[in-house]
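B., you asked whether I could sanity-check this one before it goes into the benchmark set. Here's the sequence:
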Amino acid sequence: MWLFNRKGPSGFSASSTAEDVTQGIDGSDLTAIVTGASSGIGAETARVLALRGVHVIMAVRNLSAGNEVKETIIKEVPKARIDAMELDLSSIASVRKFASEFNSLGLPLNVLVNNAGVMATPFMLSKDSIELQFATNHVGHFLLTNLLLETIKKTARKSSQEGRIVNISSRRHKFSYPEGIRFSKINDQTGYNSLSAYGQSKLANVLHANELARRLQEEKVEITANSLHPGAIATNLFRHHSFISGLVDILGKHVMKNVQQGAATTCYVALHPDVKGVNGRYYANCNLAEVSSQANDLELAKKLWDFTISLIDQCKT
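And here's what the prediction gave me:
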């Protein structure tokens, strides 16, 4: 891991852990939702936010697995304020149900961490007949964010604290299809490539954060939206690629981050005071980083926004 020790301007590096980058931060007046919090970097993000006093809502597809993680966190952090709620991001109905249930609780919402994801799956369609990676990684989070946005705005106004929306993307956003987003072929099995489709969904995460940031700035509300690359991490995201999974098992501890390091950039962007006011940017290793030219394309971001709304509208029952 010595390769990852070089610190950037933030004072942190690829070897920094989520606990390192949040040391001394008091989040006791904050409420956060973390999607995909029942395993991997989502679970570690939930743990560390709870450790720093944040009231954490774990949004999980498997509620029993989520409750197990919740109990484990409470054993380690007895004062943790943490709850689990069911959310399947591949299902528009599930996203609407989760948002409705959360909003009805009357809780504040300071931080939304859009973390959940699937990677490099064989071609499959979601319950709403949308290609699974695009549905889960982008469309579900896009809708969730929109449905929770009024609560985040209300919280920012009442608390006079900046709201933060954090999209977990990936370096793979630079390796989408040549056209970036296959608007006319989004659900087409012809030409489908599992890794390119993953890259497409991760490109969508960056474009979503950028366009959302632009809109929030126009509205002059105190909410930021940023995206990030957590790093190459040995998690179960690789389960659909046996060759890659094998390499991870052999090389993981030498060239990949562990989960504690993998959650660091998420926790940094979600909580650190140095990120205050930063909007529409992309982070890696807890430092600002460069994105692809496609990710910087303002017109592509606007087109994706309109396309996603249209896609969701078509799925209304």
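One thing to flag: Strands lie at 31-35, 55-60, 82-86, 111-114, 163-168, 223-229, 282-284, 287-288. Otherwise nothing jumped out at me.
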